[in-house]
Amino acid sequence: MNPILVYFDPAEDNLSVFNKAGYLAQTLGTTLFLFTNGYNSSLANNHPVDAASGERSRDAFVGRLEKSLLEEAEQLRNKGLEVVVKAVWDKSPWHAIDELLQTQQFEFIIKGTHHQNVMQRTFFSSTDWDLMRCSPLPVLLVKSEPWPEHLHLTACVDPIEHGDAPKILDKAIVLQGKAWQEQLSAKLEILNVYDPTPFMVYMDPPVPDTTPITEALAQQHQEALNALLEDCGLPATLGKLEAGTPTATIPDLLYEGNTQIVIMGAQTREGIGRWLIGHTAEKVLDRITCDILVIKTG
After folding, report:
1. Three-class DSSP category at 220
2. Dist CA 134 CA 132 (whole Å)
């Protein structure tokens, strides 16, 4: 297995990042690669003495960043883990990560983010969004809540979506969940939330009893979900079908079900809005209180 890339964000509390990265590396039997970038606008300008002095100042600046990583690495190495550290001079975290991905292969990326329970909002940094939108690798955004001994994973899919690309993405999401379930001995459920409201509102002509329509719609989604699970070699009992507004229902179900990691898909580098029909993905993401694993198919 390739190393796990762990991005150290000086603006975040990285304790949970290193704890969870250490657990994953230990369980999966792989190496951790601790990585960060730094930039100082004053040092970026020409040094008042000479260019060589300016370069030494920048090297010293990066060296201090690397020293912080080495301190974290030592604690992880004391647990028997193999850890590599690297710090680079770069103004943009995503640019620095992207440059690294051009030269080395990793299994996935871990980065910390944070959630404010009082406001029921997750505050994603620009780096978080860059990773979710642009990273070709799975990205695990972790929060401060510690993991229990046995993880609960929820994979969000929409198998009724038409077209080949969405179907490929849904299958990739489920297979990713299946792999994590097996490797981490975790509990897995495959969640499909669909919204019947548009069918009711725009019925022409209006019907007094919509029960047959809602039942047919539920059956259509259930059959699609069962077919997806069968295609991925999973039993239908792992599927969970719920009717409701996805922007409200998905976060509530994850919270009520005590999910630690939700698995979602991003189809292209242009955005992550595909996995919900008629809703902005950001409205769901910022209400999710658990850790988020975003995967890509292209």
Report:
1. helix
2. 6
Q: pLDDT tens digits, residue range 66-123?
A: 998 999 999 999 999 999 999 999 999 999 999 999 999 999 999 998 766 655 567 7
Cα of 84 vs its chain's centroid, Å = 23
Q: Mapping DSSP to helix (H, G, I), strand (E, B) and coil, where does residue 70 land?
A: helix
Q: Where are the alpha helices (DSSP H) in the chain?
A: 15-28, 41-44, 51-77, 93-101, 126-134, 164-184, 197-201, 211-231, 246-256, 281-285
pLDDT, mean of residues 176-192: 96
Using left for φ > 0, alpha for ψ between -120 and 50, and beta otherwise, residue 40 falls in beta
SS3 6: strand
CA 18 – CA 34 distance, rounded (Å): 9
109, 136 contact by CB (below 8 A): no
165 contact partners, CB below 8 Å, separation of at least 6: 267, 274, 297, 298
pTM of the model: 0.88
Distance CA 154, CA 152 (A): 7
Are residues 177 and 190 in contact, defined by beta-carbon separation less than 8 angstroms? yes
Angle between helices 126-134 and 93-101 (to 10 degrees): 30
Say if strands 121-123 and 114-116 run parallel, antiparallel, or are unpaired: antiparallel
CATH for the 1-144 domain, from 3.40.50.12370, 2.40.30.10, 3.55.40.20, 3.40.190.290 = 3.40.50.12370
Q: Which one is the CATH code of 147-298: 3.40.50.12370, 3.40.605.10, 3.10.450.50, 3.30.160.40?
A: 3.40.50.12370
